């Protein structure tokens, strides 16, 4: 990667024609026009201020809930992981977590601090920014149940403070201020037993490893659970475990996971997603909605 020398004062890393397969957990995706990995929040503010007002922006954390099509992404991709890495106690029972911090790291940090309620974050294979954007959840917990306030950036790099009340939050959906992106969140937790919290995290991770294909490239759960049912149950009842399109396969371990066998294209994965939706619709009359975000251009 090269430093952003062409923009004096910037300290981050700027690349062009960056393969998004290097930034998604499915290991697929065509090139982005340009990517910027900021050194910190101030650096990101300065970078955003250099962009045209109509520049298309896409934020990508660990790429664990993302399918980037083979034609790639037009505009600029922001990669906050490692840059927006604030993680600190701001009160006795409140934690500020940056958008670029892995959810599992937040879980471990809070547990060691003797705070409880965030253990489920260990089961979310992404960053806090992504978890905030989609109200990610695992093991019965949901991100926004912890959120007291958030900090956001707009397209011009201006920082905003927002309260929980500024957002409409539901299952795997968050709506609020337009054209603003999360840079950190203040989480309200409860004092508790640190040893017990750390033990719960280990137990959750063991359960995840036993029930999910964690050793193969995937995006996590592909589909949202419909009301009063489970996407995995519906998919399995259609006999789709092991169904394969190109190098993409419905996991035999968990039917709501699609894995990359090593040679999959984004087109293979998207075709398999559509096939699963068609089969569940035909057999059960239920239209499965994707939990994974599908973006980019067709090749």
Short structural summary:
With 299 residues, the chain is α+β, with helices and mostly antiparallel strands. It has 6 helices and 21 strands.
Structure report:
This protein is an alpha+beta fold and 299 residues long. It folds into three domains: 2-78, Uridine Diphospho-n-acetylenolpyruvylglucosamine Reductase, domain 2; 87-211, 2-Layer Sandwich (Uridine Diphospho-n-acetylenolpyruvylglucosamine Reductase, domain 3); 231-295, UDP-N-acetylenolpyruvoylglucosamine reductase, C-terminal domain (Uridine Diphospho-n-acetylenolpyruvylglucosamine Reductase, domain 1). The chain has helices at 41-50, 103-112, 128-134, 194-211, 231-237, 266-284; strands spanning 2-3, 13-19, 31-37, 57-59, 66-68, 73-78, 87-91, 94-98, 115-116, 137-138, 141-142, 147-154, 159-163, 168-170, 173-175, 180-188, 190-191, 244-245, 248-250, 258-260, 293-295. A hairpin with a 7-residue loop joins strand 19 and strand 20 (258-260).
């Amino acid at each position: 990667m090269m430093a952003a020398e062409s923009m004096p004062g910037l300290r981050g890393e700027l690349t062009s024609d960056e393969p998004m397969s290097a930034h998604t957990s499915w290991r697929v995706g065509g090139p982005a026009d340009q990517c910027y990995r900021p050194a910190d929040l101030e650096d990101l503010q300065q970078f955003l201020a250099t962009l045209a007002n109509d520049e298309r922006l896409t934020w990508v954390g660990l790429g664990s809930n993302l399918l980037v099509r083979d034609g790639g992404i037009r505009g600029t991709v922001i990669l906050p992981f490692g840059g927006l890495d604030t993680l600190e106690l701001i009160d006795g029972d409140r934690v500020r977590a940056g958008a670029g911090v892995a959810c599992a790291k937040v879980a471990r940090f809070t547990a060691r601090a003797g705070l409880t309620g965030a253990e489920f974050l260990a089961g979310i294979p992404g960053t806090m920014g992504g978890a905030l954007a989609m109200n990610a959840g695992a093991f019965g917990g949901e991100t926004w149940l912890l959120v007291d306030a958030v900090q956001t950036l707009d397209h011009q790099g201006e920082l905003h403070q927002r309260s929980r009340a500024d957002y409409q939050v539901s299952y795997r959906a968050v709506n609020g201020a337009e054209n603003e992106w999360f840079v950190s969140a203040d989480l309200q937790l409860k004092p508790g037993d640190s040893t017990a919290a750390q033990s719960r995290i280990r137990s959750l991770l063991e359960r995840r490893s036993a029930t999910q294909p964690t050793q193969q490239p995937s995006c996590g759960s592909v589909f949202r659970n419909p009301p009063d049912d489970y996407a995995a149950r519906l998919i399995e009842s259609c006999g789709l475990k092991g169904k394969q399109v190109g190098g993409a396969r419905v996991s035999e371990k968990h039917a709501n996971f699609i894995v990359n066998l090593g040679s999959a294209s984004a087109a293979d994965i998207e075709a398999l997603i559509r096939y699963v939706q068609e089969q569940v619709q035909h057999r059960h009359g239920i239209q499965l909605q994707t939990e994974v975000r599908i973006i980019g251009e067709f090749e």
